[in-house]
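Reopening this one. Same input as before:
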Amino acid sequence: MKEKVKEIISKMTLEEKVSQMVHEAKAVERLGIDEYNWWNESLHGVARAGIATVFPQAIALAASFDEEMVETVGDAISTEARAKYNIQHKYGDKGIYKGLTFYAPNVNIFRDPRWGRGHETYGEDPYLTGRLGVAYIKGMQGNNEKYLKTAACAKHFAVHSGPEGMRHMFDAKASEQDLRETYLPAFKDCVEEAGVEAVMGAYNRFNGIPCCGNERLLIKILRDEWGFDGMVVSDFLALMDFHGGHKVTDNPVDTAAMALMNGCDFNLGVVYHNLYEAVKENKVTVERIDEALERILMTRMKLGILGDADDNPYNDIPYSVVDSDEMKKLNEKVAEKCIVLLKNKDNILPLDKNKLKTIAVIGPNADNRRSLDGNYEGTASRYITVLEGIQDYVGEDVRVLYSEGCHLFRDQINPMAFKNDRIAEIKEICSESDVVIAVMGLDGTLEGEEGDTGSDYGMGDKPYLHLPGIQTDILKIAKESGKPVILVNMTGSAMTLNWEDENLDGIIQGWYPGARGGKAIARLIFGESDFEGKLPITFYRTMEELPEFTDYSMKNRTYRYMKNDALYPFGYGLSYTEFEYENTLFTVKDDSVTIKTTVKNTGKMDGTETVQVYIGAREDWAPNPQLKKIKKVKLKKGEAKDIEITLTRESFEVFDESGKPVISREYDVYIGGSQPDKRSEKLLGRKPVHMEVKECFMQELI
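Same output, byte for byte:
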């Protein structure tokens, strides 16, 4: 393929070359190059191009802690992507969102719960983010030896997580230790293990230099250290920020030159049209243009959309796979694995519909389709809200009373009404019901990307972490009814649910669970399935305990560095059943640590345990014990399974102030169903199995 690409490039004029380096690539008919729009999205399903399966949002997928499932989701998305591309190509539809190059996954670290785009990520932990990013990319790109199924793109490289309103001029400053320990590992995994086809730069500067023109990030680390051989893409219009926001160049010609010569191959935007002028002014070389163009055309060649690709098996995927019954069933199964049970006072859940006559379903997200989607979403053929899921589940056997209760963030639903204009309705339906299910939270119109959201609540980022508007007032009214109240919190991020935790009977973190999420939540509420989701983020008690949003130091952020007890810790989630670990044996060798244990389901129903291994170096400057391995173990009631986990040197590495990986002499290693913190122990009533590991890998230090 590479020789064919070089032959094509050798025949191109400079103008033709430049025309291929922006997302709206023109046709070069004499060389067999069709027009192609590179911009497409697939964060949790094929987006913005008609009907497709809308899977749970990325943060929800992360709560599954399930690599195999995320790879299956990636494979399903790429199957629909190919099917849609095949019919679009058949009818000559070559516009935006119709190609095979997708700008996902987002493997930035969700370091601060105020960040509006955090729900696009896999959470706050570098290890979990890396594992799920790799799984998603493998599913998207397929395993054909010759052709890519689709081309994935890891974004936004690097050190990027808000604030949204400042991203076009913001300088994210991070230490070498934080860079290597937190901000880079997931990208490294995506490149070295998954072979991701593209990497997208971030809008902001990193330590003074724009990420999309940052030689250290794009050349020295990405290519020289990690061996990346794919294409580097700018974020949309990010290059315009060089001269417009960051003020590091004076004009678009200089911007194009700076970006290209410092490692950015491709412009999602329009600035690279100026490369022709940059060559004339001797600010870029034709050799560098040819190098970038080779990577760009190689991606098209590997996709089978340039040159002869009659043997491409993906050309035969039919449109009938899109939104099929199989996809709908998979979507429901995935959603069930993502939902997290945070509180279950006196085992109020699961509800038994045979013992209920009337259920009150209240809240602004109970029947809100936008609370299913998140952002970068596709269009489903049917949406099942939580209200609809409960109505469908109980059928005619139980009466369901519904009230929207309140607006998501304003004081009243009707703009001409007084504050709390549904108070009478709420009081009455709660009084008439046996149990109240309150569906509160946010949706994709409130938290998301700058430019995609905007209201008097906020501009993508969250101004505060408590439930907005009068949602908590409505919950208090429901509580005053004397009936059990179960909160379903539909958000893509952590909220401060202190009153809710102290006063409500049950709390479920529903995320943005996908188009059929309401059905999945209903099945979980009524015990048709068991909860297995775990939190991929920390739920803090207050926003005030966090550092400034603009501070990119990891000190006092996330479970790895925080000193205070969390409200709900990373890795935490309840189940309807119970698990125990027996006969745990740690074997320490010179080059590895092996853990053998028996996981047993000692509860009353079938379930899945998320086995988590944490490692903490006994150094004052080292992070708290960090997640280093995960394993899903499905167990029937009373069943036990033996598992074995091997930890290599890399799992024990910590980073010093210079960003160098080092091995300590003493470690604490834990295996269990949570992280080894006091709050998790209190909430779960059990703690992980612990072992001290000393002098492991010491032969490498002699």
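So the earlier flakiness isn't reproducible anymore. For the record, The mean pLDDT is 96.
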